[in-house]
Amino acid sequence: MRQATGIWLDGVPVGDAWAQDRGLHYGDGLFETLVLRQGRIRFRELHTARLAEGCERLGIRLDAASALPAAERLAGAQDALLKLIVTRGSAVARGYAPTGTEIPRQLLLRYALPPAPDAEDAATGVIVLKATLGENRLLAGMKHLNRLEQVLARAEMRDSSAFEGILCSSSGLLACGTMTNLFLVHEGVLRTPRVDRCGIAGVMRAVVLREAARAGIPAEQADLLPQALASAQEIFLTNARLGVRAVTQLGERRLPVGPVTHELRSRIASLDA
Amino acid sequence: MRQATGIWLDGVPVGDAWAQDRGLHYGDGLFETLVLRQGRIRFRELHTARLAEGCERLGIRLDAASALPAAERLAGAQDALLKLIVTRGSAVARGYAPTGTEIPRQLLLRYALPPAPDAEDAATGVIVLKATLGENRLLAGMKHLNRLEQVLARAEMRDSSAFEGILCSSSGLLACGTMTNLFLVHEGVLRTPRVDRCGIAGVMRAVVLREAARAGIPAEQADLLPQALASAQEIFLTNARLGVRAVTQLGERRLPVGPVTHELRSRIASLDA
């Protein structure tokens, strides 16, 4: 029972390839979304560190240090958005238990880099979604391949014109956006939800926290109730592709692009990596 | 940015195939584990109904009614264990949001059917795991492809001789085994954890509840604390492959195969489907 004795894709017999990959069967893997500019992945060391930590936590034996340099070499000179998927590899035996002898796979996808929004002016509305995120300390923070919660959250936004949807955890705390990390500013203090029960420890989130420290902006990772959105003077979203994206509309309320958002955005935009 | 402009697998350029499948990228799909005996999938109608409900909930446009008959035709005459994976199909655009125009994929894997354990005597120990399951009402009950929680739960059992590990939900209620549903008997009353916050609505679980009703055994789906394990006179596990599997050891405690387990196991073993 260790290996399949027949495999069909849409009714046609096929060889192994992806058919027994644990990434497909279980979402047993990780990914990184990477911005390639002038032949260099932005924040390559931070992405590498997160990938290495995820592999460590899942027990995937990948040489993470070589993965992003290899991706740079493959992707070529043109600016691009890259997605690197790492899976544990094909199943050695049926069932959930990894054997430890699987050979990890790396899949790299290159996409044209969308034009940067005119960040000063881009209207960015957010709504708070009904969908919530399950809490699991073993998975929290990792950029793993189990993303059905995000798929269903985006499906909830089908009829909305909002740019992003904000998710709470199943225990009612603010967590993140469907594709972004969330930052709030209260009286000059920068706050972002902790990512130890759900959510992803975004690389751009880490950059924001680092740059806030450098700029002398007080910052904390905190347990935040949804009401903290309404009381925030500034709200912004982050991810590798968007950088720092100011929220200009929260439900019916319009928000200015405030000084903390402005300073962090300028600092990060001007970083080499 | 809608389609990838380059794809590499382990450094080698590849065509589309699975590389953009949302099952791989997000676990955006479902699966069924099926026992094929004498050319017929056991409990085919129940598996079909669950698959159809999962597709409905995820918005995957599959003709679920035709999927299992097609699997029977492909798999041939020999008794086998089948795994049917249904994904939403290749991504039409980058990002979590489905467009509704994806074309679902069906992947069927056939495995040799393992010999049935000598159920009367098979020693079956269980342990309660530290790993817990996140709670998400939008996902609960579905046999979807986000199974990293089960992978990590099985990894926790690496050094254990137990047959199965029992998981609680993040809010501390009994949920299920890593690959089974869980049933307890207290003073003649059959109880199984609800599956509306986490866990899978197993087909064999449904069969047990149906057969209990037919046999006049009082049964309920309930919120159960872990202490309910210790106070149970009988415990058994279910899934499509194992049928009803009596638990004979809970930690240090030995359990008999009691009358409720015995009756349900006999009834279900004798069913045609």
Give the SSE layout.
2 copies of one chain form a homodimer.
Chain A: E1 6-9, E2 12-13, H1 22-26, E3 29-37, E4 40-41, H2 44-58, H3 64-75, E5 80-87, E6 105-112, E7 125-133, H4 148-156, E8 164-169, E9 174-177, E10 181-186, E11 189-193, H5 203-215, E12 219-222, H6 227-230, E13 234-239, E14 243-246, E15 249-250, E16 253-254, H7 259-269
Parallel strand pairs in A: 7-8, 7-15, 11-12
Antiparallel strand pairs in A: 1-2, 3-4, 3-5, 5-6, 8-9, 10-11, 10-13, 13-14, 15-16
Helix pairs in contact in A: 2-3
Attribute tags:
homodimer; 30% strand; D-amino Acid Aminotransferase, Chain A, domain 2; alpha+beta; five-stranded mixed beta sheet; D-amino Acid Aminotransferase, Chain A, domain 1; 273 residues
What does this structure look like?
The structure is a homodimer of 273-residue chains. The first copy, chain A, is an alpha+beta fold. Chain A has two domains: 8-112, Aminotransferase class 4, branched-chain amino acid transferase, N-terminal domain (D-amino Acid Aminotransferase, Chain A, domain 1, 2-Layer Sandwich), CATH 3.30.470; 125-269, D-amino Acid Aminotransferase, subunit A, domain 2 (D-amino Acid Aminotransferase, Chain A, domain 2). The first copy, chain A, has helices spanning 22-26, 44-58, 64-75, 148-156, 203-215, 227-230, 259-269; strands at 6-9, 12-13, 29-37, 40-41, 80-87, 105-112, 125-133, 164-169, 174-177, 181-186, 189-193, 219-222, 234-239, 243-246, 249-250, 253-254. Chain A has a five-stranded mixed beta sheet with strand order 9-8-7-15-16. A five-stranded mixed beta sheet of chain A has the order 12-11-10-13-14, covered by helices on one side. Chain A has a four-stranded antiparallel beta sheet with strand order 4-3-5-6. In chain A, helix 5 links the parallel strand 11 (189-193) and strand 12. In chain A, helix 2 crosses helix 3. The longest helix of chain A has 15 residues, at 44-58. Chain A is globular and about 60 Å long. The model of chain A has no long low-confidence stretch (mean pLDDT 93). At the A-B interface, strand 1, helix 1, helix 3, strand 5 and strand 6 of A face strand 1, helix 1, helix 3, strand 5 and strand 6 of B.
